[in-house]
Amino acid sequence: MFSAIFNKYTTSTLGMIATTVPLVYFIRKHLNTEDDEDMPIHEVLFFSEEGIVCRDHFIKDSEKKACSLKNCSFYNLSRMLHFLNSADTTLDVCMYLLTVKDLGAAVLRAQKRGVKVRVIADEDMANGSGSQILSFHENGLLVKCRQKSTTLMHHKFVVIDNRIVMTGSLNWTMQAICGNWDNLIITSEYMIVRQFSAEFERLWNRL
Hints:
It is a single chain. By secondary structure, this protein is of the alpha/beta class. It folds into 2 domains: 1-33; 42-206, 2-Layer Sandwich (Endonuclease, Chain A). It is built from 8 helices and 7 strands; from the N terminus they run αβααβαβααβββαβα. Strands 1-7-6-5-2-3-4 form a 7-stranded mixed beta sheet, with helices on both faces. Helix 3 runs parallel beside helix 4 (101-112).
């Protein structure tokens, strides 16, 4: 008897969870709700060749909104910009390749509103075509580069206000956002954020 009742309510509860989670995702994605600073942040963004069809979202004003694709590249970029624009005190960027103008502009805006911005890059990539690092230099951002070596500064992470980390396989290029198979994790998990903050400080002091 107890087993039957337990199974009944367990099935009912799981059903509610199964329908609620997609609903929350839909609301956040399509209604563009803001994040509550007191709520933990745990997001995973996936990028794939499906994002190629989303390129028009970046060009046509009438289509500048997320589409129905699960891995819509415009939605993914908008989430990245949202967190960069939320920086209030510090923004530490450690990025192998950075050519996306929208992301570069978000970093520059942070500096203009008084955020302490530091950038670590790889020297070869920093001097490459389309690199936003050159613009950072011109605008007086604090930038350090790993000198040419047999190894690379291949990190791809950002620490925001020592409270949020964005990290994954994703380089900040349109090829990565709209074509490559890549991922990005965004989290406010304290132990993870603390370790990335410490690693950034270690690298910054070493360069």
